[in-house]
Amino acid sequence: MQHVAVIGNGVAGLTAGDTVRRLGFDGKIIVVGQEDHATYSRPALSKSALDPSRDLEVSYLPEATHRGVERLGCTAVALDPVSNRVTLDDGAYLEYDGLIIATGTSARRFTDCKREYVVRSVEDAVALRKRLQSQPSVVVVGGGPLGMELASGAIAMGCEVTLVHRGLPMEHHIGPLFAEIFADVASERGLRFVDDYVTSLHETPEGMSVHLTSEPALTADLVVSAVGDAPNVQWLATSGLLSDGRLVTDQYCRVRENIVAAGDVAWSVSPAGLQRNPVWTNAIEQAKTAATALVAPGAAEPLNFQSYFWTDQWDMNLKISGAVPNTEEEPIVAKGDLGQRSAVLHWPQLGSAAALNIRMPIPRLHRLARTSTVTV
Amino acid sequence: MTTSRIELDRPRCEGHGLCEEAAPDLMHLDDDDELVIDQPEVGPEDLQAAQDAVRVCPVAALKLV
Q: What's the pTM value of the predicted model, to 2 decimals?
């Protein structure tokens, strides 16, 4: 293998490129990145970036160590896996022996209206923060962790905020126990909840109108949509690599013998079925596995890592190691008091642990999560 | 023999501890969850662990110079 092409320069692409080099690959690495600047941490965009008490500080990641050629501000538009060629948006071709697909995802949105904001890129976060400084009224659509973090940021900046979500916000991501606590705190801070589905958004002379399934329409100066992300696979449409529109890898992040994929773009086969888990630690682990499978297949081990999720909102911090605690199993309170909204909880059967508003390093949280014996 | 040095931007550190998980011989969070760099000078034998630790920080608080 002489030429490795990495398509995507987020944390997955960056880590994959570095790992390829570290494994002793001495050929040429070329990295294609849509964004024309250095790689940064995305999780921080919806957390500290909207904190009015802090200057907006982009968390740029340490520079690549892969000594490759970077083509930034450039997009791949097609792939021909038979002739091993990627077509770029400037019409150039890129030939490869090994290909790493790490094109990430795009935020889903309802319209192209300027008053509908999303947060996926650093430019998105900068634009929203700037707009929120004039304290507009805001409707946040979507009650996942991103929507709740953005609602928290908007309220901290003094905006009047309504969040539309069918059901209990974040229940699917953090389980009902924590979801109820966060919903309570958000209400105390002035967030208004509307339990409904959004059918459409419309721009009006005054702002935005948010149409719902059963409730009357809402109006606001602007809408922030946090309704999930869609993998950037349009450029693979004619490649023959997609199944049902999805880019699916095996447990070694392989798509074909000389093609691997990592990060939010990829669905992977796991013992629990097909899954896509677009979180920070997963992107990094996938990138390492993918790079190894590509250039040192003998050394590759199947993806197997302890899931880690965290959120910061309403001046609260939650960290979860392991599966989402959404079982009937009663947690053990390892430390603190849940009534005080400050506790470390452990679900031994589930293999999960969580720290709410208690600083707890991840290695310790992982160790607790993996402890199967119940200590009384 | 070339060595690199791990630098910590302490105000950025949020105490996730993913770095300790990646390089437990080089750094740890103390009982107050403050990050302690036990071995700031990194030789070739620890370079990989140090790079992993720096890369995994979600707030980019670590640098390898």
A: 0.94
